[in-house]
């Protein structure tokens, strides 16, 4: 496993990280989830991601239970705040009240004294950014959070937060978690250049396009049993990628992967890691074998010739 610095910080994270969205605490049983997390750790993955809203706190409980087998200083743990955690008017968003309450609730569920990274899971137009950043800054000063991040904020929103942080000497955003894969490349235009300029690292989610870039889905064939697309509870997240033109592009990408002697998933992950501003590609895994395959993508360097071939295949893709 290779490691990269997170933005301009001194923190080093594994190029492949393990997330828990739509899996742990929900569709994957507890024992399998723990075995998968333990296997990831054995493979050198030191970066584990969750959120309070995943399975309404159940994902945090499973991730925390699994990681208790290892020394706290040996892994990097991230969680998030924003989405509703109750029906009350203050049970959502990025107000100081919600942030503080959810930070303490997450620490309790995870069974740790601090999290390495705390993300604003989305931008909150109803709360002043200064209020959000002051709450995060207090958590950092209290030692409950080490680094502050955001997820799916626009470049303008990140710039606003950086300006406010610098003006009031508040802890700065050092990491962003956006969607990024071969079919969804919006961050290349503004987000990555801003990250390079300001020292903000990208930890990208959905790098395999919700599993479509594993090659498991074929044009004209039924959905594989047990796959995410076949699951009525989460299948809607895959549908945007399940078009005939995109599936045909996956077949072409698979041909290049065969030439290189790697899987299409490993190729898709290596393609993402060509971006130096990307610190880690965040994958999901419902069983140990999946994380074993994904971990092998770390360290694969794609030649300019291969990258040019992939650009030819991906030309015209718009998600």
**Strand order within the widest sheet?**
3-10-9-8-7-6-5-4
Whole-number total of structural domains: 1
Shape: globular
Unreliable segments of 5+ consecutive residues: none
Q: What is the second-level CATH architecture?
A: Alpha-Beta Barrel
Largest sheet: 8 strands, parallel
* Percent of residues in beta strands: 5-15%
Helix count equals 10
CATH superfamily: NADP-dependent oxidoreductase domain
Looking at the structure, the CATH topology is: TIM Barrel
Q: Which key phrases capture this entry?
A:
319 residues; alpha/beta; TIM Barrel; 8-stranded parallel beta sheet; two-stranded antiparallel ribbon; 10 helices; 37% helix
Entry summary:
The chain has ten helices and ten strands. It has 319 residues and is an alpha/beta fold.
Q: Could you describe the 3D structure shown?
A:
This protein has 319 residues and is of the alpha/beta class. The chain has a single domain (3-208, 272-300), classed as TIM Barrel, CATH 3.20.20.100. Helices cover 37% and strands 15% of the residues. It is built from ten helices and ten strands. It has helices at residues 30-42, 58-67, 96-110, 129-141, 155-168, 191-198, 244-260, 264-272, 288-295, 304-314, and strands at residues 3-5, 12-14, 16-18, 47-49, 76-81, 115-120, 145-151, 173-177, 201-205, 278-283. The strands form two sheets. The protein has an eight-stranded parallel sheet with strand order 3-10-9-8-7-6-5-4, with helices on one face. Strand 8, helix 6 and strand 9 form a beta-alpha-beta unit. The longest helix has 17 residues, at 244-260. The chain is globular. The model has no long low-confidence stretch (mean pLDDT 93).
């Amino acid at each position: 496993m290779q490691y990269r610095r997170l933005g301009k910080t001194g923190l080093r994270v594994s190029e492949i990280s393990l997330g828990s969205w739509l899996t742990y605490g929900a569709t994957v049983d507890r024992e399998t989830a723990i075995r998968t997390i333990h296997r990831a750790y054995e493979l050198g993955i030191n970066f584990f991601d969750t959120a309070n809203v995943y399975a309404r706190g159940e994902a945090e409980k499973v991730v925390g239970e699994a990681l208790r087998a290892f020394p706290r200083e040996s892994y990097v743990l991230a969680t998030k705040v924003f989405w509703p955690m109750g029906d009350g008017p203050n049970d959502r968003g990025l107000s100081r009240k919600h942030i503080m309450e959810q930070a303490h609730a997450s620490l309790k569920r995870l069974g740790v004294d601090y999290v390495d990274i705390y993300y604003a899971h989305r931008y909150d137009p109803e709360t002043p950014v200064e209020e959000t950043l002051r709450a995060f800054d207090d958590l950092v000063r209290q030692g409950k959070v080490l680094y502050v991040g955001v997820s799916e904020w626009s470049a303008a929103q990140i710039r606003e937060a950086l300006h406010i942080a610098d003006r009031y000497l508040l802890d700065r955003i050092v990491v962003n978690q956006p969607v990024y894969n071969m079919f969804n490349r919006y961050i290349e235009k503004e987000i990555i250049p801003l990250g390079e300029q300001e020292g903000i690292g990208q930890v990208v989610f959905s790098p395999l396009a919700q599993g479509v870039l594993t090659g498991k889905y074929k044009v004209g064939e039924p959905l594989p049993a047990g796959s995410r697309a076949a699951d009525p509870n989460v299948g809607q997240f895959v549908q945007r990628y399940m078009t005939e033109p995109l599936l045909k592009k996956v077949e072409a990408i698979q041909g290049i992967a065969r030439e290189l002697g790697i899987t299409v998933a490993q190729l898709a992950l290596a393609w993402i890691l060509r971006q130096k501003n990307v610190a880690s590609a965040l994958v999901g895994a419902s069983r140990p074998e999946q994380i074993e395959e994904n971990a092998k993508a770390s360290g694969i360097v794609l030649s300019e010739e291969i990258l040019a071939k992939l650009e030819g295949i991906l030309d015209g893709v718009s998600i």
